[in-house]
Predict the structure of Elongation factor P.
Amino acid sequence: MISVNDFKTGLTVEVEGDIFTVLDFQHVKPGKGAAFVRSKLKNLRNGNTVERTFRAGETIGRAIIENRGVQYLYASGAEHVFMDNETYDQFELTAKQLEWELNFLRENMTVNIVSYQGEILGINLPTSVELKVTETEPGVKGNTAQGATKAATLETGHTVHVPLFINEGDVLLIDTREGKYISRA
C-alpha cells in the first residue's frame, strides 16, 4: 500500500481493480476543509485518462509492473507477433493494443513489454527511433522566413512535419512520445 501523499509522476497504482500510471498530481490545501490530492491517471489496460481526487493520507495499492526485452517479429493480419529475448517464447498483441506504437514499430526492433502479474498491458518504445522517409515532396527554395516545414511519410506509414531539406530515403530520428521529427540520423 502507498499513501497518495507519496504520488510521483510515473508511479503505477491499483485503484478499484484497474492498473493506472500517475501522469500528473497536485496537493491541494484549501483554507477551509481537509487537504486532498488531485491527480490525472492513465489506465494501462485501455489507455483512457481519468482525473481522480483522493483525500490526503488515503492509501491505495501499489502495482509492480514488470518490463522485459522483446523483439517485434512481424504482423499477421490484425495480430502482431513478438518474441521474448530470454525464453524465445512468442506471443501476439492486437493492433488495438498497439494503436500509437505501430507508428514507430519496425520488424526486428527491440522494445520492452509491460506486464502486471502475467497480464500483458502493452509495450514501451525507446524515446526515439530511426525511421526512413518513403515519401515527401521536394523542398522548394523560396521566400521562406524561418522554420518552413513539409509533410513526410515514414516507412511505418506515420506522417511527420520535417524541414524542407529532408528528401526521400533520408533516415530521421523521431520522438516516439509525441511523434515529432528530432533530426537526421
Q: What stands out?
A: The radius of gyration is 21 Å.
